[in-house]
């Protein structure tokens, strides 16, 4: 049995878009006659720490999440940096990029499009010394040389991670020791799974789990728990034969046509083989009638159906998710509101977890059609409640439709770039395991080259890096350099006269530092890879054209760039992303331009994508200019006031931008004062609304009523429930601040998904405003691939529709 390969990434690249980090580093290996040699770091040189916790181990492979790759045909489409995953890459001086501060965009927007937008090169010595110092510091602090740069016969260097036996446990599960409500929530999810498995007869059974559910279950339980509750063998749901000696077979899956067709194939296979088995399907989060009809059509009534009503999943101490990836398309494309009841029930569960007896939340506000429906449903269900929650002061509901621009902008935080380029799936990032030593000791099945590394607040190094703009991490004054310099060797204080207690404390410090060194080495390697990718001119072009739109400058160059991308057959969803951003910022696309782009998309990508374009028009991402554009406010998220004229004229977005100061020229990315640092100048619109809602200085939303009315998505609502039984709790309906003995929770609920940059911006606001924000979403939106982005189910794929 093997660890599920949830990602299959042949190469990577991490480093920052704003500071040059040379890929050559010094080799400080004492066995090399004391000489320092420059060698290159292989793109697959990350050797991750394998989890000690026994997470789900399943038989069979899995399709990987797609990483960021250059969508220009170049022989091997799976590789972005190189066509050979074992080939090292050395950057010449002309390829080095200096840092790109927010002012970079201002000075480049007015340049002619034919001029190279690549920043001038930077002296490599500074970055080289920086990286060399980091690795040298790590090596010197580790007497066993577990972290080192090895020079093998092929001149490839691998950052070797210490063996798992030498580390503390680090799993997908964040530490919730000091967060009792969320700990009880996770235990409730675990118990719910045990309860539904106990209904399966006969037991033990073979448990088959679909690929998208596997990593999700690692946030709830482990393989020991599943085996204790009857799972004799665990497999991954795959096409093809299912050969097992278990009499009872249980499928734990999401209700999709693809999954159900695989189940039908397995049952038919067993019938042809003359095998009689008992089948049970456990749907997450509930039984789907369309799937039931499909099963009955092909198999009759031979399968027992159960449901596991999983709703809120704990991703971190301040982050929960319903894991409903198709909700946005369900609501705005199919107009299916059935899953809104799950959102309402999740809020009721929070009232029970935080309110003791289930007291109602004292202050609720929000914006959006579906947020209003949830709000109305919550009011009806709360009619019998007479108490007010002491632990939650405010619930704010936001439809994704209110701010469609932010999900279309490239993230520039460390966590956002990792998710964009390499994918983070349920706190898990899959890394290359190139250490032969570790493969022999950790990986049971020969040939497995991928292992997962958890990314959450339990990693102390990562918690310092994840929400920072990438430019603040790298360089001589970067955070990575500062952390490396501050690593001290606890053993250096030993003089032989210490007591047993002192020695125990030193050993504890040594173990803690070893864990930090392991984490730091991985994040440095990730930073090197990000730097490689973001230093490419292709990435710079994307960024520059996004900034042109946000600054409303040189729009004609953006139009030409979109056409150029289509002619180069770049990834369709990336082309559509830029087209959608253009349409939203400008209010619409000129009819002549839109028809030309549509014609070329059909010619290059296929006529089926007329349906794709129609889908994007339905949900409001694309809009063709008409004579009534300026008056039809509800027909488009950002309607233009210039009737489709694409010159630098006024649009609703430009007006909102000026009123809310969404785009700022000078942003301090190292010591930010404004949430605009997450996009190096652009502040997420949704987060600016949150900032206004909870700011006394800005008088809440009263000062921006005209803006709220002009924004798309639906009505604005607000209601408060002051309680005379709680005299010590005072609620200000404008600032929604609450005075109690403990800091109450402020819940921000995104219906339709939230981006990594919005999460980082809200955390920044919480620290700045001294509020304890709890972020809840239906799904985390990634910019890295279409299947986890805003475009889920919008790009037509006749062979694999996500939801039935």
Automatic annotation (TrEMBL):
BP GO annotations: vesicle-mediated transport
Pfam family name, one: Sec1
Family the UniProt entry places it in: Belongs to the STXBP/unc-18/SEC1 family.
Ranges of compositional bias, category Low complexity: 28-39, 82-93, 120-169, 628-642
Region Disordered: start-end pairs: 1-42, 58-169, 628-647, 718-739
InterPro entries: Sec-1-like_dom1, Sec1-like, Sec1-like_dom2, Sec1-like_sf, VPS33_dom3b
Biased composition (Acidic residues): 1-11
Protein name: Sec1-like family protein
Biased composition annotated in UniProt, kind: Polar residues: 722-735
């Amino acid at each position: 049995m093997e660890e599920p390969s949830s990602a299959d990434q042949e190469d990577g690249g991490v480093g920052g878009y704003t500071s040059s980090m040379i890929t050559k580093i010094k080799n400080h290996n004492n066995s090399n006659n004391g000489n320092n040699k420059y060698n290159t770091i292989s793109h697959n040189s990350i050797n991750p720490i394998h989890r000690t916790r026994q997470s789900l181990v399943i038989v069979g492979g899995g399709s990987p999440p797609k990483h960021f790759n250059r969508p220009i045909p170049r022989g091997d489409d799976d590789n972005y940096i190189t066509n050979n995953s074992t080939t090292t890459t050395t950057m010449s001086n002309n390829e080095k990029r200096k840092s790109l501060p927010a002012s970079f965009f201002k000075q480049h927007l007015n340049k002619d499009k034919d001029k190279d937008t690549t920043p001038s090169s930077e002296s490599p010595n500074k970055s080289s010394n920086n990286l060399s110092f980091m690795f040298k510091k790590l090596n010197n602090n580790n007497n066993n040389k577990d972290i080192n740069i090895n020079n093998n016969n092929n001149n490839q260097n691998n950052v070797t991670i210490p063996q798992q036996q030498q580390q503390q446990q680090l799993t997908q599960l964040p530490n919730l020791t000091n967060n009792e409500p969320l700990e009880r929530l996770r235990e409730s999810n675990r118990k719910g799974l045990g309860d539904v498995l106990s209904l399966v007869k006969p037991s033990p059974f073979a448990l088959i789990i679909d690929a998208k559910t596997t990593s999700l279950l690692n946030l709830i339980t482990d393989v020991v728990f599943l085996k204790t509750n009857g799972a004799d063998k665990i497999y991954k749901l795959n096409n093809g034969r299912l050969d097992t000696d278990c009499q009872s077979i249980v499928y734990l899956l999401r209700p999709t046509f693809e999954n159900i067709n695989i189940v039908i194939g397995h049952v038919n296979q067993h019938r042809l083989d003359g095998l009689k088995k008992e089948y049970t399907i456990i749907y997450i989060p509930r039984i789907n009638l369309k799937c039931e009809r499909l099963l009955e059509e092909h198999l009759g009534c031979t399968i027992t159906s159960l449901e596991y009503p999983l709703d809120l999943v704990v991703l971190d101490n301040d982050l929960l998710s319903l894991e409903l990836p198709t909700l946005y398309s369900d609501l705005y494309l199919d107009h299916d509101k059935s899953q809104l009841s799950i959102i309402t029930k999740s809020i009721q569960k929070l009232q029970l977890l935080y309110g003791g007896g289930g007291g109602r939340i004292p202050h609720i506000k929000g914006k959006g059609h579906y947020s209003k429906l949830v709000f109305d449903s919550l009011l009806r269900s709360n009619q019998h409640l007479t108490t007010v929650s002491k632990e939650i002061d405010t619930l704010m509901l936001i439809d994704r439709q209110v701010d469609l621009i932010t999900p279309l902008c490239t993230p520039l935080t460390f966590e956002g770039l990792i998710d964009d380029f390499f994918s983070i799936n349920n706190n898990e990032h899959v890394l290359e395991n190139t250490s032969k030593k570790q493969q022999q000791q950790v990986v049971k099945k020969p040939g497995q080259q991928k292992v997962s590394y958890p990314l959450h607040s339990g990693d102390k190094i990562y918690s310092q890096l994840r929400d920072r703009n990438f430019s603040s991490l790298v360089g001589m004054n970067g955070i990575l350099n500062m952390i490396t310099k501050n690593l001290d060797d606890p053993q250096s204080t030993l003089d032989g006269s210490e007591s047993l207690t002192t020695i125990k404390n030193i050993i504890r410090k040594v173990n803690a530092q070893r864990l930090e060194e392991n984490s730091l080495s991985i994040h440095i390697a990730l930073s090197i890879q990000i730097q490689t990718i973001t230093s490419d001119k292709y990435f710079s072009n994307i960024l520059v054209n996004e900034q042109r739109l946000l600054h409303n400058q040189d729009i004609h160059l953006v139009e030409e760039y979109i056409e150029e991308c289509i002619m180069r057959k770049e990834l369709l969803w990336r082309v559509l992303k830029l087209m959608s951003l253009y349409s939203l910022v400008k209010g619409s696309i000129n009819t002549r331009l839109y028809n030309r782009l549509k014609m070329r998309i059909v010619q290059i990508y296929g006529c089926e994508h007329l349906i794709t374009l129609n889908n994007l028009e339905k949900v409001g991402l694309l809009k063709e200019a008409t004579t009534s554009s300026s008056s039809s406010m509800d027909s488009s998220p950002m309607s233009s006031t210039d009737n489709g004229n694409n010159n630098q004229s006024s649009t609703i977005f430009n007006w909102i931008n000026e009123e809310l100061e969404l785009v700022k020229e000078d942003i301090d990315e190292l010591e930010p004062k404004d949430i605009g640092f997450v996009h190096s100048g652009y502040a997420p619109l949704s987060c600016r609304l949150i900032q206004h809602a909870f700011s006394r200085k800005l008088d809440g939303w009263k000062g921006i009523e005209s803006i709220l009315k002009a924004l798309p998505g639906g009505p604005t609502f607000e209601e408060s429930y002051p309680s005379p039984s709680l005299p010590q709790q005072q609620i200000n309906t404008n600032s929604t601040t609450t005075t109690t003995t403990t800091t109450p929770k402020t819940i921000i609920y995104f219906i339709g998904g939230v981006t990594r940059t919005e999460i980082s911006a809200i955390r920044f606001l919480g620290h700045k405003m001294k509020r304890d924000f709890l972020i809840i979403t239906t799904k985390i939106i990634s910019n890295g691939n279409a299947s986890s982005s805003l475009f889920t189910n919008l790009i037509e794929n006749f062979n694999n529709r996500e939801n039935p």
